[in-house]
Amino acid sequence: MSEKAERLVNLTVALLETRRPLTFTDIKRRTGFYGQRDHESGRRMFERDKDDLRRLGVPVVVEDLAFGEDQGYRVVRRDYEFPDIDLTPEEVTALAVAVHLTGGEGTRLALTKLLARAPDPAPLENAPPVQVRIAADAVDAVASAVVTRTALRFTYRTADGRLGERRVDPYAVVQRRGSWYLVAHDHERAALRAFRLDRIQGRPRTVGEPDAFRTPADLDVASAVSGPEVAGIEVDLAVDPTARWAVESRGGSWTGQQVDGRPVLRVAGLDEDRDLAWLLGLAPGVRVLAPARVADKVAAGLRAVLEVHDAEPVQETT
């Protein structure tokens, strides 16, 4: 854990556990930070950390004190913690997918706590085995640089396989279509760019000192990774029970029809080219019914895979 992240964690705990507002002197004593010889330097660091916590959603409250130092700080527990909630089976399933998607050492413990909220007992081994694979060292380095506003340098592999060095000011991390992206200012191109984290080679290196740049106030993270706007299409799929959760997690809904004993689910907003790999990955548990051009593309893709592996050619399905 970086020193910046450690300070933020300790500051959050100190402000959350106190029963009264803490003065800056109290905070220095409880956290062990902000004790620079130059009092104003330590105070400025604390103010930056307080602002960072608020940007992360921690509700730091500033209160006037009756005497002594003129301000105190704390986090009101009821404003910080989530209230007790009752979950439906569908909500438990969706959250289980999200927990598996992020992965991590605490996955099983998190699922155990989550399933305790389920209306009916849910066996842990039936949780869907999904995960986005990203090197932990890249994620840690990028996340720390975003928080501390420190420039990064890394080797990046583009979609066509070319490798090159990048130096960027990291602004934010966002997920799109199952992949994580770093949105940053590219120094060489002097423009905003989005970098897929799983294409970063090795561990990114920090360049220079923290607080070297400011995130633009008008930053639109979504548009930075969306690319050209493409009209989505509706795709009808005959789905086996083993693949139904994967289709429903993409918004698939039952049409009320069945084909060969399998329910037909409709998924809206798909891109017939960008989402082709997702459809191919669902085989053989999913059969594309419509539109016909998408079914033909999937069949051609499956034939290509089988030919590479010297398997029997796939038969056309009518």
Question: What would a concise description of this structure say?
Answer:
The protein has helices spanning 3-17, 24-31, 39-55, 77-80, 89-102, 107-115, 136-148, 221-226, 241-248, 276-281, 292-308; strands at residues 60-64, 71-75, 151-157, 163-176, 179-186, 191-196, 200-207, 233-239, 253-259, 262-270, 286-290. It has 318 residues and is an alpha+beta fold. It has a 5-stranded antiparallel beta sheet with strand order 6-5-4-3-7. The chain has a 4-stranded antiparallel beta sheet with strand order 9-10-8-11. A two-stranded antiparallel sheet has the order 1-2.
Task: List key phrases describing it.
Arc Repressor Mutant, subunit A, 318 residues, 4 domains, alpha+beta, four-stranded antiparallel sheet, 25% strand, single chain, globular, SH3 type barrels
Describe the structure.
There is one protein chain. This protein is 37% helix and 25% strand. It folds into 4 domains: 3-80, Arc Repressor Mutant, subunit A; 89-126; 136-226, SH3 type barrels (Roll); 233-308, no CATH class. The chain has 318 residues and is an alpha+beta fold. Helix 1 (3-17) crosses helix 3 (39-55) and helix 5 (89-102) packs antiparallel against helix 6 (107-115).
